[in-house]
UniProtKB/TrEMBL annotation:
InterPro entries: DegT/StrS_aminotransferase, PyrdxlP-dep_Trfase, PyrdxlP-dep_Trfase_major
Keyword Electron transport appears in the UniProt entry: no
The UniProt record lists the keyword Transferase: yes
Name this polypeptide is given: DegT/DnrJ/EryC1/StrS family aminotransferase
Classification of source organism: Bacteria, Pseudomonadati, Campylobacterota, Epsilonproteobacteria, Campylobacterales
Keyword terms: Aminotransferase, Transferase
Record-level Gene Ontology MF annotations: transaminase activity
Length: 88
């Protein structure tokens, strides 16, 4: 695998997006996201627990063929759990 040159990557990005600014954290709602978010707000479960988290964990476990899956609040939390499980 050859190492990508920064200029190559930059050229690709500019050719793909032109002068259009690509926001770093702009949400894209293309389905039922707003409906589900309002449901969470109305149920008072806007956190890392609740019906949607349980459903996500269950579907993810099925998809990867695992008995369980654990959703975390961020990548750092996920890495921390991995390190603990690895005995680090």
């Amino acid at each position: 695998m050859k190492r990508c040159d920064f200029d190559e990557v930059l050229k690709f990005i500019k050719s793909t997006f032109g002068k259009y600014k690509v926001p770093l954290h702009e949400p894209k709602f293309i389905g039922n996201e707003k409906k589900y978010l309002l449901e969470c707000i109305d149920s008072s479960f806007v956190s890392s627990v609740g019906k949607f988290v349980d459903e996500f964990e269950s579907k993810l476990a099925q998809m990867v063929g695992a008995k369980f899956a654990v959703a975390t609040t961020n990548g750092t939390s996920a890495l921390h759990i991995c390190l603990k499980l690895a005995g680090v």
